[in-house]
Design a protein that fits this description.
By secondary structure, this protein is α+β, with helices and mostly antiparallel strands. The chain contains 5 helices and 7 strands. The radius of gyration is 17 Å and the shape is globular.
Length: about 180
């Protein structure tokens, strides 16, 4: 397989061009929000989970962002996100916000696609310049892992043994009980 030879700055430019071309209203809304909120939005895209999708336990090691999901098309049934000992369900028209620095695993055990608008945004706890630098390094690493990811995910997002012990084993009984409901 031949990966494209993108530089980090080329990827950002490519993403912005595609967003403006195919989703001009979304691109304009993002610009307006970022102008009035110190560039709080980091990444906005449509996320589709196909039937039967079950993503392995993973973690986003960027402790400076949260991820929100606006349910657009959510089939009835078991379409959820397991995070620590909670099982959260997407709902159409509802916005769910998660801290992805905790281990989590989403799934779609229905026969239909689930579609959401995914919104990554900075937490207001650190200077923007500091967290932007951290994020750039994380995206660079992810691009090295897999250029097709466009810096959204990579090998570095795998759950480490200590995370599983801290979050997984510590809550295993509670998690199992919650998942049986």
């Amino acid at each position: 397989m031949q990966y494209p030879d993108y530089e980090l700055n080329d990827v950002l430019e490519k993403v912005l061009i595609l967003r403006e071309k195919y989703f001009p209203s979304l691109a304009e809304a993002i610009k307006k929000i970022n102008l009035s909120n110190d560039n709080i939005l980091r990444n906005v895209y449509f996320g589709i989970f196909h039937p039967g999708l079950d993503i392995k336990l993973h973690v986003n090691y960027n402790h400076h962002t949260n991820r929100g999901y606006l349910g657009l098309i959510v089939p009835e049934g078991d379409v959820a996100m397991k995070i620590c000992h909670d099982k959260l369900y997407w709902e159409e028209g509802k916005f769910m916000i998660l801290d992805h620095s905790y281990p989590h695993c989403p799934h779609n055990y229905t026969d239909y696609d689930r579609v959401v608008l995914v919104v990554d945004f900075f937490k207001p706890d650190r200077p923007r310049e500091e967290v932007a630098k951290f994020e750039q390094e994380q995206v660079r690493q992810r691009m090295e892992d897999n250029p097709y990811s466009l810096g959204v995910f990579g090998k570095s997002d795998r759950v480490k043994t200590e995370d599983f012990i801290k979050y997984g084993l510590a809550h295993q009984l509670e998690w199992d009980k919650a998942l049986d409901k």
